[in-house]
Design brief:
alpha/beta; Rossmann fold; 2 domains; eight-stranded mixed β-sheet; five-stranded parallel β-sheet; 13 helices; elongated; binds ligand PMT
């Protein structure tokens, strides 16, 4: 997996920089070409000469002293990389990467590369748990960067805490995972819907549902990380917008129908994970309905348009089925009624799957009716499994 791969290894100025020598050595022994970039601070902890002797490659320590064989554009390293690793990554380097600062070679390469990125934070536990550091990490994760959690153990201060750089085998495992990350949707346009619509009753009240949007957002992020151009049509959620994804807000079923109709004109795939209301108010009250003491309120509801069933075009159509009983049978009926290529059935009565859970337990059914039951896994893993199936259909 590592043989012949070009691995750009960024080393930043933390006490764990000495461990990067072991990482560089193991990667080189595994047959990878290791191109080391050191920040100025890193050279205070370990010498470039050490890394040069380990990797038998020139070491880049300065933006303007390019190793001879790299062409003048200082993004040559970024383009050559199969994966970029930053180990150890200090709080300062993570903050600079999150801000997109590119006044040194490492920042430039991280901004310019299209290759998967693996970041291994290592620092004092209080710095790691600091809100700002965690926000920077969240921002970089939203951009699709892979992170390896630091480990609990003895820190430079002599104290025990969470901030130690993981051992080399763990970092190599993360690099191999990142290398396996496929960019198999490069050039494809994918439309994903997410979240629960809210159908207004009056200016104050609405009929909603328990969708958090996590499943749809996981699909959008997974598709983006695999190279797709993603439009995420989002109903009502309280999730951070994923980076590098076009977000369109669509709070009601009618607005979602409009947005989907527009977005699919250029789409290769439509995946509807949104919980779209089946009913809307026949009449939306202009003013707040006053509660007459002791009297009931009757609402007249009418069907909403079946977006997925009615939307037309030459794109792969993937739907979800939110069921509380007869999961596969009900999902198969929707598969045929809506003429879908794939339907993802999930039981929404469980706490660890369906609405708002971070995990999901789904059955993927193709248009021949073949059902594949997946075990409980994270919604991001479910998303990648769904995309694997979509990939087979696109071929
Ligand atoms: O958002 P989370 O909290 O992560 O929860 C995820 C989820 C449970 C919402 C998701 O996994 C899911 O099941 N989404 C579909 C919910 C839903 O509306 O299912 P349904 O069986 O009622 O609808 C079937 C399909 O038709 C869905 O793809 C839906 O988007 C679509 N639909 C439904 C109604 C409508 N008027 N138009 C539609 O296109």
């Amino acid at each position: 997996m590592l043989k012949g791969k070009t691995i750009v290894l960024g080393i930043t100025g933390g006490i764990a920089a000495y461990k990067a020598a072991d990482l560089a050595s193991k990667l080189t022994q595994a047959g990878a070409k290791v191109e080391v970039i050191m920040t100025a601070a890193a050279t205070k902890f370990i010498t470039p000469l050490t890394l040069r002797n380990i990797t038998h490659r020139p070491v880049v320590t300065d933006m303007f002293e390019l190793a001879s064989e790299w062409s003048v554009e200082h993004v040559a390293l970024a383009e050559a990389a199969d994966v970029v690793v930053v180990a150890p990554a200090t709080a300062n380097s993570i903050a600079r990467l999150a801000a997109g600062i590119a006044d040194d070679m490492l920042g430039t390469v991280l901004l310019a590369t299209k290759a998967p990125v693996v970041i291994a934070p290592a620092m004092n536990d209080l710095m790691y748990s600091n809100k700002v550091t965690q926000e920077n990490i969240k921002k970089l994760k939203a951009r699709g960067f892979n992170f390896i959690e630091p480990e609990y153990g003895r820190l430079a201060s002599g104290k025990m805490g969470k901030g130690r750089l993981p051992d080399t085998p763990k970092i190599i495992e993360a690099i191999e995972h990142a290398l396996g990350q496929k960019r198999d949707f490069e050039g494809k346009t994918i439309v994903v819907t997410a979240g629960g619509t809210r159908e207004p009753i009056d200016p104050v009240r609405h009929i909603g549902n328990r969708s958090s949007g996590k499943m749809g957002y996981a699909l959008a992020e997974a598709a983006r990380d695999r190279g797709a151009k993603v439009t995420l049509i989002s109903a009502n959620v309280s999730l951070d917008a994923p980076a590098d994804v076009t977000i369109i807000k669509a709070p009601t079923a009618l607005e979602m129908k409009q947005a989907v109709g527009e977005a699919v004109k250029k789409a290769d795939v439509l995946i509807m994970a949104a919980a779209v209301a089946d009913y809307q108010l026949e009449v939306i009250a202009k003013n707040k309905i006053k509660k007459e003491s002791g009297r009931n309120l009757t609402l007249n509801l009418v069907r909403t348009p079946d977006i997925l069933g009615e939307v037309k075009g030459h794109f792969i159509r993937v739907g979800f089925a939110a069921e509380s009983e007869n999961l596969v049978a009900n999902a198969k009926k929707k598969l045929t009624d809506k003429k879908l290529d794939l339907i993802i059935a999930n039981d929404i009565t469980k706490t660890d799957s369906g609405f708002d859970a971070n995990t999901n337990r789904v059955v993927i059914i193709n248009k021949k009716g073949k059902a594949e039951e997946l075990p409980l896994m994270s919604k991001r893993e479910v998303a990648d499994k769904i995309l694997d199936k979509v990939k087979e259909l696109i071929k």
